[in-house]
Amino acid sequence: MNNPFTPNETKRWMLVDDHRDILLMLAAVIGNLTDAEIECHKDSGSALAAFAAAPERYDLVITDYEMPGMDGVELCRRLRAISPAQKIFLATGSGFFTEAAARHAGFCALLNKPFPLAVLREALVGAGVKMESLAKA
Q1: What are phi and psi of 40, to 5 degrees?
Q2: Is the pLDDT of residue 102 over 70?
Q3: Dihedral of alpha carbons 117, 119, 121, 123, sign
Q4: Which domain holds residue 102?
Q5: Is residue 4, in this structure, part of any structural domain at all?
Q6: Mean pLDDT in the chain?
Q7: Averaged pLDDT for residues 88-104
Q8: How far apart are CA 123 and CA 102, in angstroms?
Q9: What phi, psi does 69 have (nearest 5°)?
Q10: 96 found inside a domain
Q11: How many folded domains does the chain comprise?
């Protein structure tokens, strides 16, 4: 099987959540699904700055909704202004969003916390992340 993430072409998945424990847990779980580097941000401002500096480095962004300063919807809007085709997932425990509302806000997928691994895999496939790029879990 061909691995699209070669050492010369490091791709990253960005995770954004203001709760450290949730961020670390998501990073551990998601890190087992991909060969991409997992980059974690505890606030939207640092995530936006990192993305703006090199948007081409990110294959996927998964962000929480409820965060101080800038919520996940505003972060999504700003990321899309930089890179309109960016794959962005909303991961939230608020229960406020439906799949349709998340898509209307610019997200590729909605992950209701806590989400099963199968739901994440389905969202990745639905967003066009090739299964060959996923490590065996």
Answers
A1: -105, 140
A2: yes
A3: negative
A4: 24-65+81-118+125-131
A5: no
A6: 86
A7: 91
A8: 13
A9: 85, -65
A10: yes
A11: 1
